[in-house]
Each structure stands twice: as structure tokens, then as C-alpha cells.
Design brief:
By secondary structure, the protein is mostly helical. The chain has seven helices and two strands, in the order ααααββααα. The relative contact order is 0.11.
Length: 180
């Protein structure tokens, strides 16, 4: 999967499309106003993502004589270090911008809808640290472990509450970066 992601995401627009399709099903037409890119470009990148097996068609409808196909991500986006290293700098920058933009948009949406501060045990953490290479490696390892534990929690919940109506959406954002 990582090699497919690395090849597929060598264009930053594909990373943006995949991020949206990881959250909801959409067609190229649906994403045109969101992405601000010509429909022909979006459609091309949808075909590329489908070719790499990263998205799948979930619905087709006839609308005014045209066939509208709606897609969703077929897997979660996760790149290991080798896959990340295989990406070009433009793709890395595009993915990073898309990820940070998504983090900000999710937080803003939760604030506007009144869910951000709904729970007293929610966290907002921005912590400036002074590290050396060994300390940085420990922080990176902790975040990797956190991701694995979060995946296990999500799987436990899905097994415990098989009906999606019994669950609610939650976003966990952890940022780790060298400060300027």
C-alpha cells in the first residue's frame, strides 16, 4: 500500500482529493468548488487514484444525460518512512499543506458547530520543546505508538458498537515539527 500511495501522491492535488474522500463520498463535480481547480484536472486525478486502487466507485447516477460517479477512499492514507522518502519535494509540501489545512478546517468546523469545547476532557496542546536528535527520535516514536493505539481503540469501538448510529465522530490531531 505504501508504494502505491507514494506513486499516487506525487501530485499534491491527489493528496487533497484523497483526504476529502477519506471523510465522505464525492464526485469530481462535487469537489470542483472545494478545490478551485478545473473539472478536467480533478477528473484526471480521480482516474489516477482509481488506477492505483486508492479510491472506489460507490454510486453511479444518470443526471441530465451524463453519468455521475461518486467515489470514496478505499483505504486510509498512511505513508511509512520509505514511502515518504520516495516522494518528491513538491508532493511532500503539498501533502503537508493539505494535512495542516485539514487539521485547521476540522477544528474550525467543530468550534463553529459547538462540539470543540463540548467535552471537559478535550485537549489542545501546543508545546514548544528544546530537543536533540535522540529526543526528537523519542518524540517521533511516541507519536507512531500513539497512532497504533488510536487504531486499536477505533477497532475496539467498531466491535463493541457495530451500529454506526451508536458512535460519534472525533478528531485527534497531534502535530510534531521542528520549530523555526
Amino acid at each position: 500500500m505504501d508504494a502505491r500511495y507514494a506513486r499516487a501522491l506525487n501530485h499534491p492535488l491527489r493528496a487533497k482529493i484523497l483526504a476529502v474522500l477519506g471523510e465522505r463520498a464525492a464526485s469530481p463535480v462535487d469537489l470542483e468548488p472545494v478545490l478551485g481547480v478545473p473539472l478536467s484536472n480533478i477528473s484526471y486525478h480521480f482516474r489516477e487514484l482509481e488506477k492505483f486502487g486508492l479510491i472506489e466507485a460507490v454510486e453511479q447516477r444518470q443526471i441530465r444525460g451524463a453519468l455521475k460517479t461518486t467515489y470514496r477512499a478505499s483505504a486510509r492514507m498512511w505513508l511509512d518512512q520509505d514511502a515518504w522518502d520516495a516522494l518528491g519535494q513538491e508532493a511532500k509540501t503539498g501533502i503537508s499543506i493539505a494535512a495542516v489545512t485539514e487539521t485547521i478546517e476540522r477544528a474550525r468546523n467543530a468550534i463553529e458547530r459547538g462540539t470543540f469545547d463540548k467535552r471537559p476532557d478535550r485537549w489542545v496542546m501546543n508545546r514548544r520543546m528544546d530537543l536533540d536528535e535522540e529526543g526528537w527520535a523519542k518524540v517521533a516514536s511516541l507519536i507512531g505508538e500513539l497512532n497504533e493505539r488510536l487504531e486499536a481503540v477505533e477497532e475496539e469501538v467498531a466491535n463493541r458498537k457495530s451500529d454506526p448510529a451508536e458512535r460519534f465522530g472525533a478528531t485527534v490531531s497531534v502535530l510534531s515539527y521542528e520549530s523555526p
